[in-house]
Design brief:
mainly alpha
Length: 182
C-alpha cells in the first residue's frame, strides 16, 4: 500500500522544498486517493479496509499540510529538526506587531464605517498581500537552508501565523456582515 516511512514530499513524489507545483500536488493527491480510497476496499478483509482508511487519512493530512504555505513551512522546519512551540512563540519584530495592532483596530472599527463590508475586504486584501510577501521570503530561506536561514524561516512562520489568524478573523467579520445584509 503506502510506505509510511516517507515524508509527505516523498509520498507525493515531489522534491523537498518550500516552492511546489500546486497542480502536480493536486494531481498526485487524486492518484493516491484512487489507489487507497476505502470504497475500493469495501469487500476486502478487515485489515485491508483498516489500512485503506489509514492510508487515505495519511494522504489527506499530507495534502492539507503541503497545500497550505504556513503548514508547509512548519512541516519543512520539522524535517530540518527545528521544533516550534506554537502556543508560546511570538515574533519580537515590534514594527510588525504594531502593524498587526493597527490592522486589528481597523477590523474592529470596520463595522462603524459607511461601507463596512468594503472596509473588511480592503483589510483582507492587505493581509493577503503581507502573506504573499512572507511566502516569497520563506521560499528563499529553504533554497539552501543553513541554521541562520532556518531561524529566519522560523521568524517568518511566526509572522505568517499572526497574519493567518487575522485573515480568519476578517473572514468571520465579513461573513457576519453578509448575514446582517441578508
Amino acid at each position: 500500500m503506502l510506505d509510511y516511512s516517507k515524508n509527505y514530499f516523498e509520498l507525493f513524489g515531489l522534491p523537498v522544498g518550500y516552492i511546489l507545483d500546486s497542480r502536480s500536488l493536486a494531481e498526485r493527491y487524486r492518484e493516491l486517493q484512487r489507489v487507497v480510497h476505502p470504497d475500493r476496499f469495501a469487500n476486502a478483509s478487515d485489515q485491508e479496509r483498516r489500512l485503506s482508511v489509514q492510508g487515505a487519512a495519511l494522504i489527506n493530512e499530507a495534502y492539507e499540510t503541503l497545500k497550505d504555505p504556513v503548514a508547509r513551512a512548519s512541516y519543512l522546519l520539522t524535517l530540518h529538526g527545528v521544533e516550534m512551540d506554537v502556543q508560546n512563540e511570538s515574533t519580537q519584530d515590534m514594527a510588525f506587531l504594531m502593524q498587526q495592532m493597527e490592522l486589528r483596530e481597523a477590523l474592529e472599527e470596520a463595522r462603524n464605517q459607511p461601507d463596512p463590508y468594503e472596509r473588511v475586504i480592503d483589510i483582507s486584501q492587505q493581509v493577503n498581500q503581507l502573506i504573499t510577501q512572507l511566502v516569497g521570503q520563506m521560499a528563499v530561506q529553504f533554497e539552501t537552508p543553513t541554521p541562520e536561514q532556518l531561524e529566519a524561516a522560523r521568524e517568518i512562520l511566526r509572522k505568517m501565523r499572526f497574519l493567518q489568524k487575522l485573515r480568519s478573523e476578517a473572514e468571520t467579520v465579513a461573513a457576519d456582515l453578509e448575514d446582517e445584509l441578508n
